[in-house]
Amino acid sequence: MSEADEFVRVARRAGEAAAGLAPLPRAAKDAALHRIADALVAAAPEIVEANAADVARARENGTSEYMIDRLSLSEGRIAAIADAVRKVAALPDPVGESVRGSVLPNGLELRQVRVPLGVVGMIYEGRPNVTVDAAALCLKSGNAALLRGSSSAHDSNTALVRVMQRALAETEVPADAVQLVPGTSRESVKHLMRARGLVDVLIPRGGASLINSVVEESMVPVIETGVGNCAVYVDAAADVDMAVEILLNAKTQRPSVCNAAETFLVHADVADAFVPRALGALRKAGVTVHGDDRIRSYAGGDGVVEATEDDWHAEYLSLDIAARVVDSLDDAVAHIREYGSGHTEAIVTTSQPAAKRFVALVDSAAVMVNASTRFTDGEEFGFGAEIGISTQKLHARGPMGLPELTSTKYVVTGEGHLRG
Amino acid sequence: MSEADEFVRVARRAGEAAAGLAPLPRAAKDAALHRIADALVAAAPEIVEANAADVARARENGTSEYMIDRLSLSEGRIAAIADAVRKVAALPDPVGESVRGSVLPNGLELRQVRVPLGVVGMIYEGRPNVTVDAAALCLKSGNAALLRGSSSAHDSNTALVRVMQRALAETEVPADAVQLVPGTSRESVKHLMRARGLVDVLIPRGGASLINSVVEESMVPVIETGVGNCAVYVDAAADVDMAVEILLNAKTQRPSVCNAAETFLVHADVADAFVPRALGALRKAGVTVHGDDRIRSYAGGDGVVEATEDDWHAEYLSLDIAARVVDSLDDAVAHIREYGSGHTEAIVTTSQPAAKRFVALVDSAAVMVNASTRFTDGEEFGFGAEIGISTQKLHARGPMGLPELTSTKYVVTGEGHLRG
């Protein structure tokens, strides 16, 4: 059988599994999740062995230690993954929730209720824990998961899915509700992107180039996640101490993630008070500042790199930050509109009108007032778990929890109602 | 300037207008809508004259009288279009609505609020009233509208947009918030479909081939609307009188629309009682039934056409209906899953368990219990207006009112909160 035919077979089985899974009550889904968690712990040696093959191949290929660390599984890490599955089981079931309801003037009863999306396709990079996280979130929300992880983690993902399917076989949830996309070639990703009618939504998680290629090529509806060129704007009315702390936290607390700050913009009126302190604190934290001329004038030619157009666009994911002095809040907003990725922006200000205007004009998934950009996160927002952070405006925007993995259905009940 | 460059210029102006429109209060938007309504009425002669050119061209091209009727504008029809705009002004403003809010354990205040989508692209067929309806719904929800109607209505659409822009020029809403896509070629539609980053969502309204081509080619997120292969299932426990009435209403009350029934499925246990009466009533109403062998056995070889595979898939939009006897509710669900378009299905039954099972298993935007499929409609659902009926699962499903033309933004307010 060709890889394309094999893909269609797998996707159809996922669709059938989704149909069987959709009407299951919460208890059945939670029991299946607990079974998966137990099975992962019990099968940890088998999973670690498969993972060792991936890690060995990665080392042969000269993969960086950072990437190898993301790829590596130990019995301890598998226990943590299993705990995360149990946590998902403990979350409320979004399916069946009434989101709208009324009795129409003609007596028809109208209810809009949450239902699963159906088959959720995930494309992601070399972190095998995503295989289990995504499967757990999909199952809990009544969806089948069709997973396409990095080929670098293929052995690990195969083992994880085998263990999960074995566990599901002993539950009411169909085992086909969790499957890997067959094959490891680039072509196999394309099968997923062209599977309109077989896959209900595609969620790419990874770098900008992965996400762009999926958005451009997919015929299946896509939820874009992850690219974060986040800015901290220090307003004329900022508390300078607070501004330095927020900037430092936003940039350095975990520089490799999408909600880390990549740019700061400072109002000219507060630049004298703020910039020297900020540059000192950032230098101490090992951060390279890429500044415009006005920022550089505070550095005495020392320690601040000249910013280019590329810097304003950059999602560094490293200890680098772009910096610019602006003449007004509206200039800060204009910079963000031009260069931002619509993920998270923060304003530091004691001025209520300034905060209100920034919130109104900045068109990003999350806008922080006097808080670090690092808070844009499903866990931090209290969602219990997240499948990604959407930077598009359709369907879901910002951290996506279980409700964002559902659609809705209108249920209309009459007594022989006819339209006149 | 090339058409592609001209498109980018227009789309950028729409984006700037959207940014100006987004923070406007309801009063400013409603005032603009009333100004548009008045201007349409005042300019009715100018619009009718432009429309006459479209109509004359359509007649030369041998367009059907039905299509010419959809295309034609009179002063009376323009007055009705203006009234619809005033009705949109009277609807609640979805922008700014809090859809979620809480204080997090660390004291951060979290609010999720509705915001406009930005620039909404519409692709639609030869009904010039859609130009105004879509513009009004977009403006009310704070969005700029980038409109691409049928080239057959180009003169009408140009006049309507000119009148609307003239009206907007005297209001706080930027006139560029309503624009036509430049050009009438097929290529000009492609500019819209490739305008990722310039257009936030594309809503095609029209036949299946238009919608399919947009879904397959668009890099801009799409909301599919409109295709309706709707089924009425007559359960073993149906009230036969009610079933005949609902079927007749669903098929014949307005056969040309997407929520009209295109198939009926009848449980074998009730077929003897139901089918002869249904066939008689449908024949009397001028409906051609395309039945399977079991349906045809009731017709005595008279008046029922043999159904082919194509009939099960058909969205007739005419006085035709496909019909099949099924042995169980689950067989009816299986038929719908195989052939339905996910728009609206109805069950007629007095059995509560049967109704519950049908509602749970049928995966359509709307499921009717003892009511006609014709009720799936924004007006009927009490939304005041609709921009289309979504048959996809992402973002919006079923009739789309003003809230479905919005996204959301998280606003997080702290007091110097840092992530630990």
From TrEMBL, chains A, B:
Keyword Cytoplasm: yes
Location in or out of the cell: Cytoplasm
Chief localization: cytoplasm
Gene Ontology cellular component terms for the protein in this record: cytoplasm
Pathway: Amino-acid biosynthesis; L-proline biosynthesis; L-glutamate 5-semialdehyde from L-glutamate: step 2/2
MF term (GO), any: NADP binding
SUPFAM superfamilies registered for this protein in UniProt: ALDH-like (SSF53720)
Enzymatic class: oxidoreductase
Cited Gene3D superfamilies: Aldehyde Dehydrogenase, Chain A, domain 1, Aldehyde Dehydrogenase, Chain A, domain 2
Gene Ontology terms: biological process: L-proline biosynthetic process
Domain Aldehyde dehydrogenase: 4-285
Keyword Cytoplasm set for record: yes
Reactions listed under catalytic activity: L-glutamate 5-semialdehyde + phosphate + NADP(+) = L-glutamyl 5-phosphate + NADPH + H(+)
Keywords: Amino-acid biosynthesis, Cytoplasm, NADP, Oxidoreductase, Proline biosynthesis
Pfam families: Aldedh
Enzyme Commission (EC) number: 1.2.1.41
Main function: Catalyzes the NADPH-dependent reduction of L-glutamate 5-phosphate into L-glutamate 5-semialdehyde and phosphate. The product spontaneously undergoes cyclization to form 1-pyrroline-5-carboxylate.
Recorded family membership: Belongs to the gamma-glutamyl phosphate reductase family.
Listed name of the protein: Gamma-glutamyl phosphate reductase
Organism placement in taxonomy: Bacteria, Bacillati, Actinomycetota, Actinomycetes, Streptosporangiales
Gene symbol of the encoding locus: proA
